[in-house]
Amino acid sequence: MQSRTLSHVPTRQISAARILTSSGFGLLFDAFDVGLLSYVLVSLAKQWHLSQTTTGLIGSVSMIGMAVGSAFAGSLADKFGRRNIFLWTLLIYSVATGLSALATGVGIFFVLRFFVGLGLGGELPVATTYVLESSPEAVRGRRVVFLEMFWAFGSLVAALISFFVIPSAGWRIVFLIGAIPALYTIILRLALPETPRYQNINKRPSMVSALKEVWSEGIARRSVVTWILWLVRNQLGVLHLS
């Protein structure tokens, strides 16, 4: 997410705890969903008599949604703000996750899983950008490391909820559990301002120009490597579904 001409707009200081809590829970739900789907599909395959191919496709459509969401979120965040796009992507995830609990067939479940991935894929890079741009340079790296810890917590929460809830209450309940806290995270995020760096951008780039810059000479190679690392990390959570 590249900036353009900067002005000098005074901004209030934001505590590290508030930055990490609001952004970190976004990553927690990202990891939670990736891990949760692995456990849910075991139950879903038995209930809906799904083949291995179908369960693999369900896992894949989530990854496709995440790829699409991450591809456009950065450009949209450059144009409309990190805070706004974080809120919208988290809202998409929350609504789609909650509606997944009401799915009655594979078709609608496919569609909802795409939108869940779309929201999560868009939220992940924006949350990281928010922490980077809201942190002093001296502690920026440390805060990003703390932020990434929420991913591990999300995977742990997914395993615990799946172990205790799915056998007794069913897979639909875990989707409701995932949607409700995500809505609370939106409330947390509403209390935070836009990042200081974004507020100081005088000229907002268009989405087309931002996308061209990401894949321009000198940056394209780094973009490809980052995408590969991101996809590998997320795909590890669903490898055993195939």
TrEMBL record:
Domain Major facilitator superfamily (MFS) profile positions: 19-242
Compartments where found: Cell membrane
Key word Transmembrane helix present: yes
Gene3D superfamilies: MFS general substrate transporter like domains
Pfam families, per the entry: Sugar_tr
Keywords: Membrane, Transmembrane, Transmembrane helix, Transport
Membrane topology classification: Multi-pass membrane protein
Broad class of the protein's primary localization: membrane
Protein's UniProt keywords contain Ribosomal protein: no
Sequence intervals crossing the membrane: 20-42, 54-73, 85-104, 110-132, 144-166, 172-192
InterPro entries on file: MFS_dom, MFS_sugar_transport-like, MFS_trans_sf, Sugar_transporter_CS
UniProt name for this protein: MFS transporter
